[in-house]
């Protein structure tokens, strides 16, 4: 794909970029003195960095590589990923965010496990941690795969070695800097990826000749349905809704940033604006995939390489280098956010209850060690499940199955009891895991088993657990 001189240039740029991020983490590390500094960025983040960290976390490697491939292969029907996502973002901003923020302020929460323990008892932390480890380890592993693909296609590094390199570099960077470094690095990376995607979108649209020409070519190739937003099965829409969209309500990285904001107004404005931008960027990426198929007439069998084919088709090499940096910014900014979210679950919900609250130094160390633990699980998942979007959907399905019902019902309804909440988590999580291991019998996704069982369990136990209801009130 690239000749030797181009590979040398790309390799040098990638190395310099990683060194820059590592040095930035080490610089910010000097101001990380407490557990809150590391896990919720001292709760003082202002509007601009908050917006960019939300964008950077929402637009990851799966967005540029996975969604563009989906648009190229499956067409405009893949925009339902973003239609369902935007709906969830609006609901969270209007109905959830204020309640989440005020609870976090009042109880100095670090993780969703803090909320669930307050609502359903300390024992509820365990299924919460397990659920988040599935999601965040899967999504972190997804970024390892994305980095490996970048290294493989740009400088010829084998995929296995690339996954290991991504694992080592991202683990070191996140270990030192915590959420504070993540947010300030996202300030830089969010600008890079936002500008990069917008520029790529308009250049591709210009080169493709506009929608009318794309539509004419789709008709010539007897594939007009590829330009139809309804060219998708109801089952696919349902899966996107129940996994990627509903997951927004219980994303720990989102809740942590809501708590990291300096005040409620900053949290609400920053989240709403940034997530709308992130959804629009994702929609642009799907459109780029569609335009590349019918407008740029790119014809490839190895569809995961569509991003690289597109940038080489429309840009000279110096701008190709810039777009590789855009991809790296997207991958890295998501990976370290997932690291922190998963590691915080372990440190805050497993270790902290057994450590004296005033021992900040020890908890800060445990938070860093938790990053290493999460990275090990993520590495295993990355090597076992290489598909980008598949990996993300699998992880989010486990978490939604276990946590969505008790969290959402608990936020807005006082009657669910501790027993109901705990059983709901375990039933949803375990049933989804079993269904995944069995290989989706009858073609049913695990979310279609785990989430309904979790909801039914919560409602039935709440109805009959009168003694527990009295305790919960």
TrEMBL record:
Annotated localization: Membrane
InterPro entries associated with the record: Na/Glc_symporter_sf, Na/solute_symporter, Sodium:Solute_Symporter
Pfam families per UniProt: SSF (PF00474)
Transmembrane segments: 6-27, 47-68, 80-97, 129-151, 157-176, 188-209, 229-250, 271-294, 314-342, 363-385, 391-412, 419-438, 444-464
Keywords on record: Membrane, Transmembrane, Transmembrane helix, Transport
Gene3D superfamilies hit by this protein: Sodium/glucose cotransporter
Tree of life domain: Bacteria
Membrane topology: Multi-pass membrane protein
Chief place of localization: membrane
Protein family membership: Belongs to the sodium:solute symporter (SSF) (TC 2.A.21) family.
PANTHER family: SODIUM-SOLUTE SYMPORTER-RELATED, SODIUM/PROLINE SYMPORTER-RELATED
Name of the protein: Sodium:proline symporter
Species this chain originates from: Staphylococcus auricularis
């Amino acid at each position: 794909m690239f000749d030797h001189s181009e590979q040398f240039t790309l390799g040098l740029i990638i190395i310099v970029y990683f060194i820059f991020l590592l040095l930035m983490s080490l610089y910010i590390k000097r101001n990380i003195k407490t557990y809150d500094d590391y896990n919720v960025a001292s709760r003082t983040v202002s509007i601009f960095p908050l917006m960019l960290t939300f964008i950077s976390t929402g637009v990851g490697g799966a967005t540029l590589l996975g969604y563009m491939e989906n648009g190229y292969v499956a067409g405009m029907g893949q925009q339902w990923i973003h239609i369902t996502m935007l709906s969830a973002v609006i609901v969270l901003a209007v109905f959830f965010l204020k309640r989440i923020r005020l609870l976090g302020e009042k109880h100095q929460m670090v993780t969703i496990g803090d909320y669930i323990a307050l609502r359903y008892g300390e024992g509820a932390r365990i299924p919460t941690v397990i659920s988040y480890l599935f999601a965040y380890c899967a999504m972190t592993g997804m970024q390892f795969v994305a980095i490996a693909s970048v290294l493989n296609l740009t400088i010829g590094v084998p995929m296995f070695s690339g996954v290991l390199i991504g694992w080592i570099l991202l683990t070191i960077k996140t270990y030192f800097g915590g959420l504070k470094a993540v947010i300030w690095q996202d300030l830089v990376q969010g600008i890079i990826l936002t500008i990069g995607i917008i520029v790529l979108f308009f250049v591709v649209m210009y080169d493709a000749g506009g929608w009318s020409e794309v539509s004419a070519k789709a008709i010539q190739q007897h594939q007009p349905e590829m330009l139809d937003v309804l060219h998708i099965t109801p089952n696919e829409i349902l899966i996107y809704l129940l996994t990627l969209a509903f997951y927004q309500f219980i994303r720990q990285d989102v809740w942590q940033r809501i708590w990291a904001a300096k005040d409620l107004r900053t949290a609400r404005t920053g989240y709403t604006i940034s997530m709308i931008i992130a959804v629009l960027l994702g929609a642009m990426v799907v459109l780029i995939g569609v335009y590349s198929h019918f407008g740029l007439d790119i014809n490839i069998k190895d569809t995961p390489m569509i991003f690289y084919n597109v940038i080489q088709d429309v840009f000279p090499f110096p701008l190709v280098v810039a777009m590789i940096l855009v991809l790296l910014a997207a991958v890295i900014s998501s990976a370290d956010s997932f690291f922190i979210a998963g590691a915080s679950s372990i440190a805050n919900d497993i270790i902290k209850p057994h450590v004296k609250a005033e021992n900040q130094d020890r908890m800060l160390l445990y938070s860093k060690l938790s990053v290493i633990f999460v990275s090990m699980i993520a590495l295993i998942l990355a090597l076992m499940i290489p598909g980008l979007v598949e990996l993300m959907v699998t992880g989010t399905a486990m978490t939604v199955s276990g946590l969505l019902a008790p969290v959402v019902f608990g936020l807005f309804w006082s009657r669910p009891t501790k027993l109901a909440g705990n059983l709901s988590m375990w039933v949803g999580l375990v049933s989804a895991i079993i269904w995944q291991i069995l290989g989706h019998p009858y073609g049913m996704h695990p979310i279609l088993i785990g989430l309904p069982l979790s909801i039914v369990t919560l409602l039935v136990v709440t109805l009959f657990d009168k003694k527990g209801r009295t305790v919960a009130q």
